[in-house]
Amino acid sequence: xxxxxxxxxxxxxxxxxxxxxxxxxxxxxxxxxxxxxxxxxxxxxxxxxxxxxxxxxxxxxxxxxxxxxxxxxxxxxxxxxxxxxxxxxxxxxxxxxxxxxxxxxxxxxxxxxxxxxxxxxxxxxxxxxxxxxxxxxxxxxxxxxxxxxxxxxxxxxxxxxxxxxxxxxxxxxxxxxxxxxxxxxxxxxxxxxxxxxxxxxxxxxxxxxxxxxxxxxxxxxxxxxxxxxxxxxxxxxxxxxxxxxxxxxxxxxxxxxxxxxxxxxxxxxxxxxxxxxxxxxxxxxxxxxxxxxxxxxxxxxxxxxxxxxxxxxxxxxxxxxxxxxxxxxxxxxxxxxxxxxxxxxxxxxxxxxxxxxxxxxxxxxxxxxxxxxxxxxxxxxxxxxxxxxxxxxxxxxxxxxxxxxxxxxxxxxxxxxxxxxxxxxxxxxxxxxxxxxxxxxxxxxxxxxxxxxxxxxxxxxxxxxxxxxxxxxxxxxxxxxxxxxxxxxxxxxxxxxxxxxxxxxxxxxxxxxxxxxxxxxxxxxxxxxxxxxxxxxxxxxxxxxxxxxxxxxxxxxxxxxxxxxxxxxxxxxxxxxxxxxxxxxxxxxxxxxxxxxxxxxxxxxxxxxxxxxxxxxxxxxxxxxxxxxxxxxxxxxxxxxxxxxxxxxxxxxxxxxxxxxxxxxxxxxxxxxxxxxxxxxxxxxxxxxxxxxxxxxxxxxxxxxxxxxxxxxxxxxxxxxxxxxxxxxxxxxxxxxxxxxxxxxxxxxxxxxxxxxxxxxxxxxxxxxxxxxxxxxxxxxxxxxxxxxxxxxxxxxxxxxxxxxxxxxxxxxxxxxxxxxxxxxxxxxxxxxxxxxxxxxxxxxxxxxxxxxxxxxxxxxxxxxxxxxxxxxxxxxxxxxxxxxxxxxxxxxxxxxxxxxxxxxxxxxxxxxxxxxxxx
Length: 920
What we know:
Number of domains: 4
CATH topology of the largest domain: Aminopeptidase
Distance between the termini: 75 Å
Structural class: alpha+beta
């Protein structure tokens, strides 16, 4: 054997030896433990972190600790979508665990300075321990946190060393070992499927990555670390409700990042939310110093103040600042439960990753123990600041029920679940300086009885303001840095969306009240469905206005009950009630003799407000027997899924249809769509993906085209819409702006025609031939060379909107806008601008430059490029139709304003837009 061949072998042996030494290294050197408590190794029958533990093993060990150790109490705070229990293990001294409910009450008292005097608060501070909430594995494929949680639970329940006892004496520790049990189980199933007898250190191997859609997300493919204030998923709702109840002062959220990184912990990099209190920013440095010392003892690498910001308040490490908690993010290099060979040649083992997470948690808990009084005083100080009105900030937000009280109640319920106080006006109130998200100029508002009030002098006002405020803005320094990064080709510094305001997302009319009059209120209570059928004779049938979300659920129930339903395409007046387009009509002669009982059942279940119709003769507009009442067709919906499709967009659509509308929905694999019998469906939805042309192929595209021509409704979202605008597919006449730069003038003429349509008064002299014809003023042609136009367009795309709310204007008569009053905030996150002209029906366009931006960053280049571009289009193809959404209408499961347009496409589309039902 030569030296040349020996060197690689020696290097391999050295790397293996180093990895083995990490495996042998104890998690807690010189630790002492009670023999009455089994370690995870002993209980599980394996060395912890020799492989990832399954969720049932985690659950069994937590139950064992709670049953065996007087230091521990296990609470079940909820269930995952798939029914797995969500556990939190509380650990402290036996006396305190025995009195955990009293401790929770005392901490709640400290957290509400309105109810406790400073001297009484100081007495609580002298005796109360700190509450630390330790969370792991929110992304199912970020595995190392759960093993660290088990080791931490063992350390705190069995440890007898001085440092551990000091933590127990000063801290109540809440351990959430797996925030996403469904995602973890999916990850482990995939990893084990692709793991061979000889383990691969290659992080590109499938045993490290799994297959689409991976295990990062939960059952409905939601990223739970973006769902904290949104609360679309049961895991998030349970978690935030529990945390708000126990008022922690320290929150840890343990993640993983790229395999070739090291380890990150706070402080974060900029931008940092301007709502984060100064006390928390100071604490980041204190905790970081102790955490760094703990890592330095092992010569481990780490970094801070880079990669991860704290701008978006929907992360686990961000939402908690609204509680007055010091929140710390961990990001450990990923190993996928195995080992990864790094570029330097060394091997990072799963056990070492777990060791990093565990060491970080112990370091943070030790810091909290040593800083108990200071943390509690700062918590009380932050809450005291929260119950005091701030200069130049709203005194309250006022949610108006308007014509969609169901939506307003849903928003109120989401806020209350997080511990935010919501009140209901029992008498009308006049606000002298009120700002809406449509107009930043203060005006006077009289809020009617039943409006909801969220005061900004409550304990969680910091959180409430962060998620309700209409517009968030970077300061000038950060704005300059962002522009420089974009222009230099480095890309955005923004880690997340730039806007998230819940009132805009929900489309609930809301004002920020800058002054606050005397109010008569009562605490908000959940709305209870009841029979809301108005009194009167229903000899002809029943009417149902389409504005309120309860009507959506009522229509779906009516379809399921086999009722025949028509929708008004023109306004009318009956019994002095003005009915808008979209009003649903249930004719008695079209339906079963049991119509009255079925309508009553649907009204009770949905809360929808039905109106009886004694006659078909209206006071104005079309009579109820008129052909303008179009027969609706029950939707038979299929949603395309599979590799190449955006899993997050798919998940939002699937959850909305399945859990939201309770609609039977088929999930079709895109890779087998060419062999699928599409005649079973009359609605087919393509989630965002730019790969449909490649995935479907010529034959698949032809099958889709034939299906549409025979009466199908195809709905394409985001990049899927862009894919279908490819002219070679012969599906859509909508075009991407960059594809038609030479024809921009044609589209400008179309915009001018749309703006004038129906508004210009006829010239009677010209009509009757006594005045000469005056041609419409033409748009001046572009003078720029096509090459310059292309370069300009490319430059403008650099400044694309990255999650900003922009105004869209709806066509006043198009059925896709039924139930919505003229305009909506829409979340825009794309580099694609869509242009449309006749015969395309443009149901919604982005507003002009002046009125376009509502919230978030929208550069002048973005406003110039996206202004008046198409948001929602509809095109007839044979007997069917193609509907394109330029952006996701149900982004992260909470943009309910634009989601109503999707509802119309799905529930109304087969009847109002297609001329013949599938099958053919």
